Amino acid sequence: MSDKNNQDVAAQSKSEEAQSRLGDKILVATGITLAAASAFFPWYVFLNADKFGIRTEALGRTRDLPPGVARSVVTVSPLAMTDSSKDDWPKPVEPTDALTTATTSSLGETRNTGSVREEQPFPGKGNFRLLHVANGRALIEDGSGMYMVRVGSILPNNSRLATLEQRDGKWVIITSSGEVYRDTGVSARP
User: Fold this and answer.
1) For residue 189, which of 134, 146, 136 has the smallest C-alpha distance?
2) Residue 116: what are its φ and ψ, rounded to 5°?
3) Once rounded to an integer, what is the mean pLDDT over residues 30-36?
4) Please, is 171 exposed, middle or buried when counting C-beta atoms within 10 Å of its C-beta (0-12, 13-18, 19+)?
5) How confident is the model at residue 27 (pLDDT cuts 50, 70, 90)?
6) Is 106 in a helix, a strand, or coil?
């Protein structure tokens, strides 16, 4: 009996090995098929770009719809109803006159007497105020901010700071145009 049992066990193991090999063969065949398809598909797309590529429409100077199957339209834009004749195209802009009509700067010119021409002042008076004076510098303020200036600096009214003086216990600044701006503080600061 033991021989018969051994034969049954051997036959059973052979059938299991055959089933295992069949499963392995199916798995290998599936892997090879997927690899071949993965290698072939990009070439198919490359060789048939008209099926997979981006479709572009030719751009023209008309507002007509591209040819295609008509669809039912409920409302139509007035712009789509225009005729596409050359009369509807925008007119080209006429060239501008190239004649220069501006004035040129006269800086550096001298009068007949030989003296240098004065600079023209800017329109309107520059509005700034003196806040503080210390160590030969002044703090001034206008609508756009606060500035630290010293003798020779350009001020917001386009003049230069000529001098810093103390008058009647308060600091003043005198500009190159002769304007005097007083300190807004209560007492004189050394």
Assistant:
1) 134
2) -75, 140
3) 95
4) buried
5) very high
6) coil
126: nearest Cα among 165, 177, 167, 166: 177
Q: Kindly tell me if the per-residue pLDDT of 159 is higher than 70.
A: yes
Asked if 175 and 153 count as a contact pair (C-beta separation under 8 A), the reply is no
Q: Which helix (H) or strand (E) holds 47?
A: helix 2-47
SS (H, E, C) the chain: CHHHHHHHHHHHHHHHHHHHHHHHHHHHHHHHHHHHHHHHHHHHHHHCHHHHCCCCCCCCCCCCCCCCCCCCCCCCCHHHHCCCCHHHCCCCCCCCCCCCCCCCCCCCCECCCCCECCCCCCCCCCCEEEEEEECCEEEEEECCEEEEEECCCECCCCCEEEEEEEECCEEEEEECCCCEEEECCCCCCC
CA distance 187 to 190: 10
Per-residue model confidence (pLDDT) at position 189: 44
pLDDT digits (tens, 9 = 90+) for 92-118: 777 776 666 666 666 555 555 555 555
Copy the structure tokens of residue 144. Answer: 């756009």
Q: How far is CA 59 from the centre of its chain?
A: 28
Q: Model's pTM, two decimal places?
A: 0.34
Residue with tokens 């004649």: 99
CA angle 148, 154, 159 (to 5 degrees): 130
